[in-house]
Structure formats: structure tokens, C-alpha cells
Design a protein that fits this description.
It is built from 14 helices and 22 strands. 28% of the residues lie in helices and 24% in strands. The chain has a seven-stranded mixed beta sheet with strand order 13-14-17-12-20-18-19. It has a five-stranded parallel beta sheet with strand order 6-5-4-10-22, covered by helices on one side. The chain has a three-stranded antiparallel beta sheet with strand order 1-3-2, covered by helices on one side. It has 530 residues and is α+β, with helices and mostly antiparallel strands. It is globular and about 75 Å long. The two termini are 46 Å apart. It folds into three domains: 3-71, 2-Layer Sandwich (Alpha-Beta Plaits); 94-277 and 487-529, 3-Layer(bba) Sandwich (FAD/NAD(P)-binding domain), CATH 3.50.50; 279-478, no CATH class. The longest helix is centred in the last third of the chain and has 17 residues, at 388-404. Strand 8 (239-244) and strand 9 (249-251) form a beta hairpin. The site of flavin-adenine dinucleotide has 43 residues, from helix 3, strand 16 and helix 14.
Amino acid sequence: MSEQHHSEPRIEFVDFSLALELSEDEAARKKAVSKKLRIKPDRIQEMKLVKHSIDARRANIRIQLRMEVGIDCALAEYVAPVPSYKSLNAGVEKVIIVGCGPAGMFAALRCIELGKKPIILERGKDASARRFDLGPIMRKGQVIEDSNYCFGEGGAGTYSDGKLYTRATKRGPVRDVYDVLVAHGAPEQILTDAHPHVGSNLLPNVVKAMRGSIIEAGGEVHFGAKVVDFLLDESGKEMRGVATADGEEYIGESVILATGHSARDVYKLLADKNILLEQKPFAVGMRIEHPQPLIDKIQYSFRAGVKRPDILPAARYRLATKIDDRGVHSFCMCPGGFIVPAATENDEVVVNGMSLARRDSPFANSGMVVTVEPEDTEKFKKEHGVLAGIAYQKDLEVKASKAGGGVQKAPGQRAIDFINGKLSDTLPNTSYFPGLTSARLDEILPYDVSYRMKIGLKKFGNQMNGYVGEDANLLGFETRTSSPVRIPRDEKTLHHPEIQNFIPCGEGAGYAGGIVSAALDGMRCAEAVC
Ligand SMILES: Cc1cc2nc3c(=O)[nH]c(=O)nc-3n(C[C@H](O)[C@H](O)[C@H](O)COP(=O)(O)OP(=O)(O)OC[C@H]3O[C@@H](n4cnc5c(N)ncnc54)[C@H](O)[C@@H]3O)c2cc1C
């Protein structure tokens, strides 16, 4: 770069790090930027935070920052994202979207942008009504089968942990997803955090606002509209629409199926109609829970007795290894969170994790799972064919319910007892509201999962000192990590290879694994039909 260029007004992006205690201090930031750019501080006219992340690899925690810097010039004016959807013209073609999770909702908004009328059909209730149905699960162990932690407005994403980071950056414009969420009320901080998170107390309002945008532009959202049949044309090769349990028929130009991984009746319906499905790998295991201060101590290298300062978020971790050709890994880690009953039927127990925006519960929990390949489900293939993976999951969920003793109580075992093959005499405190019953999880899990889990946990205990100590608790079972079934689709058109105008979408179809990737897939599917 020429000297002359260096003296010109310009905008630059600067990466640097600051000690934790200085990281929020504007003067310290300016000093670091001017040093990095080798310019006088008074040439910095304006600075804006672009990315914020924590580097806790050393005992002295540092904050990594990326700033946009106006040198002798101002930055472009920041325009906060707002909903801006044009009203649809009368008579535009209709797209039927089954499922009001992130995939379905983002598909609907993209349809509107592209001039098609989305009609969302959702088996569950709107987010406010749905909230009241979570009470009976927690307090009485009673699952309302169409309205629970998986089903209802916003899908499995609404009362979730609300982590929004994704490794699916190649799947599409992640920033667009964040902008839509911010436009509908999510905190702007998600635009700059390296590990953005919303929390279950904020998400319901975001999904309600998104529904508002869909309806205001001329789209439709129907709750209590459980799809029970697919309407094919006479050739059986083209999708015309769907029928709901209350006898209504919805006909559209295309059908986007975004029903999530827990809609087992939908897979069954597709299989019964001889619509091509494939088995795919998935993962099962447990939720592991620790006191959050223990995870803070390990991850932030605190000395004994040191408390996490408010400026630092509850610490997270990610663990992964491979044992005999199968992955063993942490999944959906929820710092400062709660373990929740995520079953969709009354004869099963399924655990998952969630948190509030502040992430201030005294517990840290995470899925700890082992990959299950289609060949590992052989035992169920004769009876269940391509749905063998679902039968495998269900078998474990029913066993968990029996071992827990009913009313959504989960079987629990200390991690150290799991490793040593021993029933726990007592169990540590837990955030899981329905309660725990001590059980031999190591014996209930299939051997292929159990022995790998033992080795994996021991390894993780070596990586994180104290991870499998007396305070580490395991709850059974985490089975709904992803769909065991893929609904195939053409790589380019995204239509099902055998059925025209039928677009399998999102996590349930096997093309996403989380809120953001489901949203991205929803947008892609809408583009494919438009
Ligand atoms: C407790 C919990 C915590 C989670 N935490 C996170 C997290 O922190 N970060 C993250 O990225 N992911 C998280 N997830 C996973 C995430 O929620 C899902 O990956 C995501 O919601 C999948 O989106 P989807 O739209 O494909 O499906 P879903 O969100 O499952 O939505 C499918 C929708 O279809 C509806 N439906 C099903 N069958 C029918 C039918 N027959 N007729 C009409 N409607 C139907 C369902 O009611 C549901 O609303 C969590 C999940 C749970 C359960």
C-alpha cells in the first residue's frame, strides 16, 4: 500500500484482542486499533463492533474483537433490520407449508418476498397457548401430544436453548437469518456475538412477530391443523395438496414439508403411501449435567473459589472423539440452562436442554451422544423397514420411561457410576423438574452405545479435569438429536425424486440440524418453488 493511500480517508476492519477487564472500554479499544493500524488515535472518527468472541484458552482470558473503523471519515449509517414485506397481490399462487418451525416460517417469509402466498399448517398451538401446555408436562408428567416442547408455533426452536450459531455457513446466508430475527425482536447482539444466543423467554415473541409479518403480507397460518394425508394427482406422481385431521383440504402449487424430526406419524404416512424414504445416521445418548461453576472453573481456568465475573457468560464446551468408527460427542450444550422433558407421547421420556436469555441457572447441561449408523438398527429392520431408526429411538424412550417410573421422571446415574457400571446410591441435584430415579443407564443403552460412551466419557474427563467427577449427572435419554430418516430430494430442484411439487424441508427431512440451518433450508426450499 502506498504512503499516499495510508493518508487517505478510508474504512478498515481491524481484528485485535483486549484483556477481559478492558474489553468494554472505548478508550482502550481506540488505543488498540490505532496501534494496530499505526495511525494517530485522533484519525479514528468512528468505530463499530463487528464481532465479539472470548478466548479462554489461557489463564488470562482475552476478548477477541473485530471493529469497523472510519479513518478520517464516518461509517455508513447503521440501519437496524425491520420487517419490510410487500403485500401479496390477489390471486397469486399458493404454496402449502406443513409445519411452523424455523424451516416453515423462513420458507413462508421467503415465499412472500418472491411473490407467492404461503399457507402454513401447524398441528400445535400458537406460542402463547402452547406455553400453558408445558406446565402439565413439568408438573404432572402429562404430555399433550400435539402441543409440547417439539410441536407448536416456532417448532422445536421456540422453547429451546436458542443457540443460533451454526457450522452450516456454506448452506446459505446466515446473516440474513439473523437480520430477520432481529427485525422481529431478537436482540441486536446476535449480529456481533461469535456464539449468538436468544433464549426461551425471548423466542416466543420473535416467532409471534414473524407470524404477524406473514399474515400482514397476505399469507395464512393455521394452528390445530394437523396434516394427516397427502393429496396426489391421478398418476400418483404429483403433489396437489394436503388434508388435515379436521377434514379440510388445502390445494397449492407446491407442498413444502417441514414437520421436524419428531413427527413420526408423518414418516409413517409417507412410508404407507410408498413414497421413497431413506435411513440416515443419527445419534443417541444422554444429557450430562454439572454445576455451572464447575464448568466455569474448568473452562476459564479459575483458581478454587474464584467466581465468574458478570462480564463473562456462563462457560460452554464442545467435546468430540471417535471410538471404533462411531463418533462420541457433546451436543447442544446449554450453559446456565435447564434439562426439559421433550417427549411427544405419554409412554416415553426424552430429555433435551434449554435456557433463558440470561443463562443464569446454576446448572450446565449438554447432550452426550454416540452416532448410530443404519446398520446398527438391524434388530428393528424386519418389522419397521426404513423406519427402523425411529423404532430404535422409540424403544429407548419407552425404556427410559419405565426406568424413570412414569410421569416423565427420567432415569439418572452419576457419570462416574456409569463408567464403573454401578447403580448410584444418590443422585446430584438437577434442573430436570419432573425428577429422577436412579437406574443403570449403562445397562439400558444398547451395548454398542454404552461401551463407546464409557470410553468417550473417560477421555473427556482427561481433557476437562472434573468433567466426570462426583457432581456429573447423566439423564436418559437424548434420542431426538436429528432425524433417523431422510426424505430424498433432487439436488437442484429440491423436489422429491418421485413426486413433483413435493419439497421435503428442514430437520425432519434430513437437511438441517438446528434453528439456523433449518431456517436456511426453509429459505432455499421457498426459492426452489418460486
Ligand atoms: C428443547 C430443545 C432445545 C433446542 N435447542 C436448540 C438450540 O439451542 N439451537 C439450535 O440450533 N437448535 C436447537 N434445537 C433444535 C431445533 O429446535 C431444531 O433443529 C429446529 O427447530 C428444526 O426446525 P424445523 O423447522 O426443521 O422443525 P421443527 O422445529 O421441529 O418444526 C416442525 C413443526 O412441524 C409441526 N408438525 C409436525 N407434524 C405436523 C403435521 N402432521 N401437521 C402439521 N404440522 C406438523 C410441528 O408441530 C412443529 O411445529 C432444540 C430443540 C429442542 C427440542
